[in-house]
Amino acid sequence: MSSDNPYKHIPARGFWRSGVAEPGPFGLSALWQSCWTLPSDAVFATFGSCFAQHISRALIARKMNWLDAEPAPGKTPPALAKKYNYGVFSARTGNIYTAAQLLIWARLASGQVPVDSVELWQDGDGFVQDLLRPKIEPNGFVDANEARESLASTARAFARCLTEADVFVFTLGLTEGWVNAVTGQSYSICPGTGVGHFDPEAHVFHNYTYPEILRDLEAAFEIIWGMNPDLRILLTVSPVPLVATASGDHVMVATSYSKSVLRAVAGDLARDHAAVDYFPSYEIIAAPPMRGSFFEPNLRGVVAQGVDLVMTHFFGGLDASGAARHRAGAVDRVAASQAEMAAEDLVCEEMMLEKFNEA
User: Fold this and answer.
1) Whether 38 contacts 324, CB under 8 Å
2) pLDDT computed for residue 341 by the predictor
3) Which 8-state DSSP code applies to residue 185?
4) What is the dihedral of CA 191, 194, 196, 200, to 10 degrees?
5) How far apart are CA 326 and CA 173, in angstroms?
6) Domain locations in the chain as residue ranges
7) Which of 14, 98, 183, 209 is deepest in the core (most CB within 10 A)?
8) Which helix H or strand E contains 227, and what residues bound it?
9) pTM score, whole prediction
10) Which residues of 236-274 are buried (b: 16+ CB within 10 A; e: fewer)?
11) What pLDDT is attached to residue 342?
């Protein structure tokens, strides 16, 4: 019998002892290598859950091309721009937590569904919010027309991100969501927890399964590539645990389910599509060998040292060695002061759920 076997040819990073145990968290290497060679002036658009904001800030800090397709008007001071959620993502979408919500944005951007199809919420004072962007306006819109015009503007900006970017970075955050029992439209947060009023007959909890998430992402990607066949999609999974769960499970068990499913979907999409890649931000922060050392005392927020480690691996594996194309006018960088916001200043609508914790 031959003494040769496949394991004799695996590099050191393929064995736990030499790849993980011996180097330790700060000695890990070759965790990720981009499967693409990008132009040196590649344009990035970033969307998704709260953790996606770290990537946009890191791109700006390194003077790379982060696309801000919906900048704040005129000479808006950075603090006011942040208050109104400008410069957080590449368009003013707010957090996109689920694949179902990404699919809605793709359909809006492509014109497959009209802006008028998006449900609006009206509070007791008459101010209006749309279901996709709760609290995008701190006090709400004056009326439905203003809300629709704003949503249409963001849909156009989202479309520009798809057509002008080289890389669309999307951070998957949650499997849990709420939907309208009649229309099936997905909410960004549960009605009644931040805006609107909860109606148990109309507002239904749904914990998306692997097949559903895969289906929605595949559908979204089909639309996206129809608008820009050359767009590359880089998926990540947020390492940040759930604030709360409506599944009935313990929140730690629910978090494990959510992140495991999202990680599996992202990996399979990257395997099946040459234009999709996966970056392991989740593993760098949340894998057992890290011993939770990169989480804040609340065991949820990620400390700056952890974010820096993630970005070291991200830019270490990113290949932007291709020839520059010098596409004038395609990029509008946000102000450095916005990029330097502290981690606790991340815009996370999900955090509104904590105020209901009476324990």
Assistant:
1) no
2) 42
3) P
4) 30
5) 34
6) 37-111+151-335
7) 98
8) helix 210-227
9) 0.91
10) bbbbbbbbbbebeeeeeebbebbbebbbebbeebbeeee
11) 40
Distance separating alpha carbons of residues 302 and 296, to the nearest angstrom = 6
User: What one-letter code names the amino acid at 235?
Assistant: L
| Token code pair at residue 222 | 């089909």
Residue numbers of the chain with a pLDDT score lower than 70? 1-2, 326-359
Question: Is the separation of the CB atoms in 285 and 239 below 8 Å?
Answer: yes
Per the DSSP assignment, residues forming a β-bridge with 233 are: 168, 276
Q: What pLDDT is attached to residue 62?
A: 92
Q: How far apart are CA 239 and CA 51, in angstroms?
A: 8
DSSP letter string, 282-348 = HHHHHSGGGTTTTB-TTSSSBPHHHHHHHHHHHHHH----BPP---TTS--PPPHHHHT--GGG---
In CATH, what is the architecture of 37-111+151-335? 3-Layer(aba) Sandwich (3.40)
CA torsion through residues 74, 56, 152, 120, sign: negative
> 159-180 in b/e burial notation, b at 16+ Cβ within 10 A?
bbbbebbbbbbbbbbbbbbbbb
Query: Helix 52-61 vs helix 304-317: angle between axes, to the nearest 10 degrees?
Result: 70
Predicted pLDDT of residue 251: 98
Structural tokens at position 298:
């609340």
* CB distance 121 to 196 below 8 Å: yes
253: helix, strand or coil: helix
Q: Which residues pair with 205 in a beta bridge?
A: 178
Rounded Cα gap, residues 284 and 336, in angstroms = 26
CA dist list (Å): 19 to 4, 95, 309, 352: 22, 35, 17, 39
The pLDDT of residue 350 is 55
- What's the CA gap between 256 and 137, in Å, rounded? 33
Three-state DSSP state, 257:
helix
